[in-house]
Specification:
Radius of gyration: 19 Å
Strand content: 5-15%
Order of helices and strands: HHEHEEHEHHHH
Helix content: 40-55%
Number of strands: 4
Length: about 240
């Protein structure tokens, strides 16, 4: 949902321009174009849009600094209809991903900082976000345990169908979907992201990214371990 709170230049995953997509076409109009919606307003509008044909709306937005309060806001608005899936990952993998991934700013590709001293600044910012996001989700889980489930990234990519079954059972969502590779995209409506979003989902395509175990420098590993050990212990890392 959050994708439509900014300007859009790519088609929906249903392969239609957003103007003619059955989901977005009636919401994103000249009067209410992309970029004019708040995250909360758009999500509520989407729920109203799909209520007669779909049972679940999945918002996969990351819990970034500006979104720490989102679970609590949606709970106040939606009550028991809102469920929070708290996806956690080893902070070493999170930091590795943030220094090796290529980023863009104002359309320009930023230089790789994997071997630059600047990576420590990136590590610090990443770890602050890792702590803040996870603690916000932990607080929500303590307040609303029946609407919360925690999932480890490593478990999800290692056994996706088993993990989905656990999530659906824990949240009372009925039977979990089967991850069968096919061409059906009619119920997938994502407006931004990598090209992978145009591929039909398949369990065989899900692979863990554990490059950090082999390639992360010892000092980086030590620093990250020292700054995150309480939550790493809680999440069995």
């Amino acid at each position: 949902a959050i994708a439509a709170t900014r300007q859009i230049a790519s088609p929906c995953t249903c392969c239609q321009p957003y103007e003619t997509c059955r989901l977005w076409g009636t919401l994103l109009t000249p009067e209410r174009p992309p970029g004019s919606w708040s995250h909360e307003a758009l999500t509520i509008a989407l729920l109203e849009q799909i209520k007669d044909q779909d049972s679940i709306l999945i918002d996969s937005s990351k819990t970034a600094w500006g979104s720490l309060s989102k679970p609590f806001q949606f709970h106040r608005r939606l009550r028991s209809e809102f469920k929070l899936i708290h996806l956690v990952r080893d902070p070493h993998g999170v930091c590795w991903s943030n220094v090796t991934g290529r980023r863009r700013r104002k359309g320009k590709l930023l230089p790789n900082i994997e071997n630059s001293p600047r990576r420590y600044v990136r590590h610090g910012r990443t770890l602050l976000g890792w702590w803040a996001a996870n603690l916000a989700c932990e607080i929500f889980g303590k307040r609303h345990p029946r609407q919360y489930v925690r999932v480890r990234y490593e478990d999800l990519v290692g056994a996706p169908e088993k993990t989905l079954h656990h999530v659906f059972k824990a949240l009372g969502l009925g039977l979990s979907p089967e991850l069968i590779k096919g061409e059906a995209r009619a119920n997938r409506h994502q407006l931004s992201g990598s090209r992978v979003r145009f591929e039909p989902p398949s369990a065989s395509d899900i692979r863990p990214d554990t490059r950090w175990r082999k390639n992360m420098k010892g000092l980086d590993r030590w620093m990250i371990s020292a700054l995150t050990w309480p939550l790493r212990w809680r999440y069995n890392y």
